[in-house]
């Protein structure tokens, strides 16, 4: 498949990297040394407004006024998010009324391919954040007619997969520095039109901050000790301590005595933390499909059971068949 060139604006610690692409359904080619596919993906899914805009787009919303009706979002925030998603190649801005300069935002193939990540976020929040479960829609698999939960499986051998079933790590373009968004922090959920909608509060706590996302990724790669998080990520110790505290309060990490010295605490993923695996892997899969680094992939994984490159596939737990985006129906909460 052909790839297209990308124009990249200057990057600074307080300025988000902007990737300007034409709305065509071809992967974007990234220049050497640039933020890699993982960092670009986290910059997109680490913003709750982006996720909510995409959720409604997958349900058929295309026009500015329709998003304003559906979401408690200000004009300024919606304008910025639509511009960003268009620059990322997720939307194509198309004039729908000739001569009137009226535009709508149509999902590209790249944008439609984000459905597994949004579905995984919904499933995780529905299962592990019960205080707002009633506000989330019910998902029905059109093929079998039943409500379902998505099960992560290996696309090569169709077996169900847990985090420990996959081995791997950084590829040619993979470093911690290149795998986090340029912005120091991402917008968190909050109240009011500009603060956030609060639909996915704990997801944002995990991926809505560049250091949170990095620490979570490091945990999936096997890091456990405070010093390892600090040294590998190059993060200030106060930030590492704060993020570890938040993860423990959320029940994503648990503290355990160190293997060498009991007074040196280590941090391990809980069942809730491990359950975030599909969100992480669907995001990585999407990013590396649509953003190609000159040096090669950022992350490379192998499924232990079959020995082949791991690509995640979501399966319906009710009928055990692979899910397709057009076969998923969202229904109001019961």
From TrEMBL:
Keywords from the UniProt entry: DNA-binding, Transcription, Transcription regulation
Q: State the SUPFAM superfamilies in the record.
A: Winged helix' DNA-binding domain (SSF46785)
Q: Where is the HTH hxlR-type domain?
A: 30-133, 197-295
Keyword check for Transcription, yes or no.
Answer: yes
Lineage, top-rank taxon, reads Bacteria
Q: Where is the signal peptide?
A: none
A single Pfam family it belongs to is: HxlR
List all membrane-crossing ranges.
none
Query: Is Cell membrane included in the keywords of this UniProt record?
Result: no
Q: What is this protein called?
A: Helix-turn-helix domain-containing protein
Q: Which organism is it from?
A: Streptosporangium oxazolinicum
């Amino acid at each position: 498949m052909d790839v297209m060139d990308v124009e990249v604006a200057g990057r600074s610690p307080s300025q988000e990297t902007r990737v300007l692409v034409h709305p065509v359904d071809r992967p974007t080619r990234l220049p050497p040394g640039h933020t890699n596919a993982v960092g670009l993906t986290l910059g997109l899914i680490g913003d709750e407004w982006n996720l909510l805009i995409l959720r409604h787009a997958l349900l058929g919303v295309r026009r500015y006024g329709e998003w304003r009706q559906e979401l408690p979002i200000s004009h300024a925030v919606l304008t910025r998010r639509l511009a960003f998603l268009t620059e990322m190649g997720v939307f194509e801005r198309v004039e729908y009324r000739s001569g009137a300069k009226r535009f709508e935002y149509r999902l590209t193939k790249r944008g439609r391919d984000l459905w597994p990540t949004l579905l995984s976020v919904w499933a995780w929040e529905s299962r592990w954040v019960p205080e707002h479960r009633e506000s989330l829609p019910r998902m029905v698999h059109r093929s079998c007619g039943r409500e379902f939960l998505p099960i992560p499986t290996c696309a090569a051998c169709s077996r169900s997969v847990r985090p420990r079933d996959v081995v791997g790590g950084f590829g040619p373009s993979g470093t911690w520095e290149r795998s986090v968004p340029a912005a120091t922090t991402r917008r968190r959920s909050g109240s009011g039109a500009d603060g956030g909608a609060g639909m996915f509060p704990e997801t944002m706590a995990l991926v809505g901050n560049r250091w949170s996302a990095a620490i979570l990724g490091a945990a999936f790669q096997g890091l456990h000790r405070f010093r390892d998080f600090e040294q590998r990520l190059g993060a200030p110790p106060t930030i590492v301590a704060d993020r570890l505290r938040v993860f423990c309060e959320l029940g994503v990490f648990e503290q355990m005595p160190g293997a060498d010295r009991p007074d040196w605490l280590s941090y391990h993923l809980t069942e809730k933390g491990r359950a975030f695996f599909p969100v992480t892997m669907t995001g990585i899969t999407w990013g590396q499909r649509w953003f190609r680094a000159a040096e090669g992939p950022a992350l490379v994984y192998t499924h232990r059971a079959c020995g082949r490159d791991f690509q995640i596939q979501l399966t319906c737990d009710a009928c055990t068949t692979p899910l397709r985006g057009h076969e998923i129906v969202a229904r109001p909460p019961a």
